[in-house]
Amino acid sequence: MPTAIAVTGADLALPPQDERTVPAAVLDGLDRRPLDQAVADVQTLLDQHGHLVVLYSRAVPAAVEQRLHTVRSLLESDRIALFRPELPPLGLAVLARQLRQLASCDLSPGVLASAGRLLTHYIHAGALLASVARLDRVPVGLTSHARSWMPGSQFAVLAHPQPQLVKVGPDTLLDGPEFGTWMLVGRGRLQSDWVTGTLAPAWRTQGLRETEAPAESAAWWGTDKLIEFCAYLPDLSVLYQLVTSVRQTVCHWCGIDVIGDLCVFCSATPPPAQEPRPTRALTAGSPRTHRALTKGG
């Protein structure tokens, strides 16, 4: 069985991108279930799949994150990777689906889990907001805060890969990807066609799909009057080539194959490089010096 890719909510388990996309494991309501049941559920996933990669957003309730770490500690398992990327909820859902695509390939669990950090760099995630008064994930200037209180104001915000915030106007654009992408649009309570009618054509997206914004999006963006969007690489062949083109190493602690400088399963980093031992100078009291002096005399 392929490595299990899990998310913390059913709305983060997007429909398959292609016929090879494996289903997501949904760890919903971890903080509301008895601890022994949560441990048993995760143990079942490990028994079935061998390894588990859990993706969760920075807007997840603190109790859920604490429960994830508690379950991992109780199981004393280095086969569970907890990954919390710097992505809004819709972007996280897209990344989870990309890993679900790659899970069908011949990638080792460590390489697959490490691929999450690599693929994050190729995701452009943002939102159209009716207000930025409560937005704390992206720097917001005083002028933008003041404009948030003006009726009808809308703001285009890019959270990743580089933060950007602009007030929507006739010529408003955000910096987009320099490679071909598809776009997923998650609709909240804001009514606007700016994302699909202006941004998507400007970014030259090759395909566009719509869904509902995840429940965690309102907490992440500070408002439920939003339209979230994410540009991403959809093709499995491209994702596979990106991952396999990166040099692989072996974790010195747990022995699993990884890419990058951090093992996502045991959290070990490479040991510091050992400096060559300096050559010791001969001293008058050393045995070698004594022999040399005796022979020379």
Give a description of the structure.
The protein has helices at 35-49, 62-75, 89-102, 109-120, 142-148, 194-202, 217-221, 236-244, 287-296, and strands at residues 4-7, 25-26, 52-55, 80-83, 124-129, 155-160, 164-167, 182-187, 207-212, 226-232, 248-250, 257-259. By secondary structure, it is an alpha/beta fold. The longest helix is centred in the first third of the chain and has 15 residues, at 35-49. The protein is built from 9 helices and 12 strands. Residues 272-297 are annotated as: Disordered. Residues 288-297 have a biased composition (Basic residues).
Q: Outline the low-pLDDT stretches.
A: 279-297
Q: Helix coverage percent of residues? A: 25-40%
End-to-end Cα distance = 77 Å
Let me know the largest β-sheet. 6 strands, mixed
